[in-house]
Specification:
- By secondary structure, the chain is an alpha+beta fold.
- The chain has one domain (2-173): Alpha-Beta Plaits.
- It has helices at 2-14, 32-50, 53-56, 91-102, 134-139, 150-155, and strands spanning 18-25, 62-69, 75-82, 122-126, 157-161, 164-167.
- A 6-stranded antiparallel β-sheet has the order 4-1-3-2-5-6.
- Helix 2 crosses helix 4.
């Protein structure tokens, strides 16, 4: 069951016009709820800055988010962001928008332990797939961990769309 579900997510990711891989790491002690709210707010604000089409025509970024707990118990996100409407012009543009938006949040909220940008706790990379779905497999790795229940693995995955992120069972409709 877990592997079939995971494969469905991987197949879904393969079909999307993926553009960006965003990693966001929070400081120790940040609650799961705080982290989710911050991620949702960040993506909403980035979309709002990309183009006015977002507001006028309701064109959104979409994608998949994986929520993980680090060894210290702090939430960490990986997001594969798709761009079906051509809102993102470049990785650098997206990174600059993320950096700008995060600069408006309390700096103490983000950790720099496992990310490339030491000061903000995030990393933005171009999405890549060499035909082996390595990144899609990586962000769905909790489905391989037999000590984690199917429900916990399922609740670690969220769908980005319509200006929001839905975690858990809602992805079952893929």
């Amino acid at each position: 069951m877990k592997q079939e579900y995971r494969q469905g997510i991987i197949d879904f990711i393969k079909m999307q016009p993926n553009k960006i891989h965003l990693t966001l790491t929070f400081r120790e002690g940040t609650t799961e709820r705080q982290a989710e709210v911050t991620l949702k707010r960040l993506l909403w604000e980035v979309m709002g800055r990309l183009k006015r089409r977002f507001y006028k025509k309701k064109q959104f970024l979409t994608g998949i988010v994986s929520k993980e707990l680090q060894s210290n118990g702090t939430v960490h996100f990986h997001a594969i962001i798709a761009d079906p409407h051509g809102l993102v012009q470049s990785r650098q543009q997206f990174e600059d928008l993320v950096r700008f938006r995060l600069s408006k949040y309390p700096v103490s909220q983000f950790s720099s332990k496992t990310v490339t940008d030491i000061h903000k706790g995030f990393s933005v990379q171009e999405y890549y797939d060499k035909g082996d779905c390595a990144l899609a497999k990586y962000i769905t790795k909790l489905f391989e961990n037999w000590s984690i229940s199917f429900d916990a693995a399922q609740n670690s995955i969220g769908i980005i769309g319509e200006g929001d992120i839905a975690f858990g069972g809602s992805i079952g409709r893929l």
